[in-house]
Design a protein that fits this description.
Number of domains: 3
Oligomer: single chain
CATH class of the largest domain: Alpha Beta
Order of helices and strands: EHEEEEEEEEHHHEHEEHEEEHEHEEHH
Strand order of the largest sheet: 8-7-6-3-2-1-9
Helix content: 25-40%
CATH architecture of the largest domain: 2-Layer Sandwich
Number of strands: 18
Low-confidence stretches: none
CATH superfamily of the largest domain: ATP-grasp fold, B domain
Radius of gyration: 21 Å
Mean pLDDT: 90
Distance between the termini: 37 Å
Shape: globular
Amino acid sequence: MTAGKITVAIVFGGRSAEHEVSLQSAQNVIRSLDPERFTPILIGIDRDGRWFLNEESIKLFHADNPKDIALNVSSPQVGLIPNGPERQLVRMDNKEALGQIDVLFPVLHGPYGEDGAVQGLAKMANLPCVGADVTASAVGMDKDIMKRLLRDAGIHNAAFTTLYHWQKEWPIDEIEAQYGYPVFVKPSNMGSSIGVSRASDTETLIQAITHAFQFDQKVLVEQAVDGRELEVAILGNDQVMASSVGEILTRDKFYSYESKYLDADATELNIPADISASQTARIQATAIQVYQLLGCSGLARVDMFLTPDDEIFINEINTLPGFTNISMYPKLWEHSGLSQQSLVTQLIELAIERFQQKHNLKVTR
């Protein structure tokens, strides 16, 4: 570790279906790390969950091609060993200690990274971690639980039916009678629109449910909301800031994985959204309310719909939103006057701040 600098372990890749998105996001985060303040340790996780050390720079195949980008696993395999205040990485082949980690920065989207798994590892290792804690990460990842909490708090979100893998029959007739068509079908625990389909009749509904169950054991069928797709970036712990409001304009029937990450021409990100000042204020306030209700910290992106009747419906929250060169989260903050380097610096500082606050809590009677 370089004297006087904070050592940040940036972790990317992972076992999720969003593996490639994570690799794209990691490139931006690494480029945005202030070299005067931070020393990076780059750790790539392959699809089997093995951790590999990228010693000098991020090692990727087809780094500039979002369709073919892949992790280079020729580097040494490492493990994180909790060791009191010395949070160490250890090489798996010769057990060599590779030095202390000061902060863990997970750039991991979806299960095994955004769902509380890595956050729990950091907690057990007594290690500051960028982003939400275990509970908020898990709740934000599970759309079923998230929507129930929002509904209980009186915050509008689309009507939905939850399906489970153990059900012998799906209530297709009830869904059709209650919601009509179209409906959207989603894995409960997945992001980046992976496994999401728009169903317009019984046949496509059954196909959509079958497809979604390939990614999760719990699936949501949601009533379609007629509204403009708006997004707000949130930053902070106790003191929370909301960015400008952005709007997603897509030529597809919905904001798909391809539109988000593979085809930069498929969507237009309108920042700021063409809405009134009063609408902007209400949307920002609602986004902060959702963030605080779910117990988030560090960062999140809140996605919502604005209906023709001027009602706000929450779509979802992303506690580790995409950080690629076409992702809404960093673009919203750039428009709000915060550079990507300043944003990454603040995220690390917020992680240390929260860790120190919790470190002062009593753990004995």
